[in-house]
Amino acid sequence: VLDCIEFNKRFRYADVAADVAFLLMDLDFRQASSFGYYFINAYLVQTDDFNLLSVLNFYKIYRAYVRGKISSFESELKEIPLHQQVEAKERARRYFDLAYSYLSSKQPMLFATTGLIGTGKSTIANALAAKIGAVVIRSDAVRKHLLGLRPKEHLYAPFGKGAYKSDITHKVYETILCLASDVLSYGFSVIIDASFSREKYRKMVVELAHKVKCPYYFILCQCNEEIIKARLKEREKKGKDISNGYFQLLSTFKQYFEPLKEEKKITVRTEQPLERNIKKILSSF
Asked: Beta 189-193 vs 110-114: how paired, if at all?
């Protein structure tokens, strides 16, 4: 929404990050931060603009401070009733406290989902991200951006062929870990949403966590096979999900999947209610 600013080019043309930050700050102010993380992670899937995160808190501070300043001015207006002045003063305090909170540094954490296709890894990743305030890096989106495709363009290919050849998959994981390193350096926790079906890719996660000295966990998603098959058929029927894991790949994927040896893992059964699984994850670290 442009509020009559089109006459001024300095106002009309601004950094997209500033507008994204404005929305996220407003959601934080209204105690709706989880919606903000759903938004930013959906935005990143579409744009691949992870560099935006490097200035996100800067713009959130700026936006909160400006709103606080406006409320401060309002609190001193003699033309409005006293109770409105008091409300404006309290609102200003809340905005300034919010701006200050963006300066606080918490140690970011690194999570990586792992499991067969159709086990609900993306559902778990997005729900956990909204709960703890984390950035999701989704392998399906990264693969498509690397190949110059839109997120919802489908890549139906036999296992290990075409867009899923081993060299391309290796490049996808390299890119994911590079992005994760950047996002962690910006101060955000990261959830890598990928299958991590091979031990060599899991080792890359461990190496990154040791390098940047942050806690890490693997989230192993498991599910009844009949439910997995039903999910994959439904996904293929709807054709709306950016994932390309389809029903015919399941048996081959199972043979290819290497058992998880890592001790720092949290296992969830995704036939269970989502909220129960998120509570289990949160109680594990």
From this structure: parallel
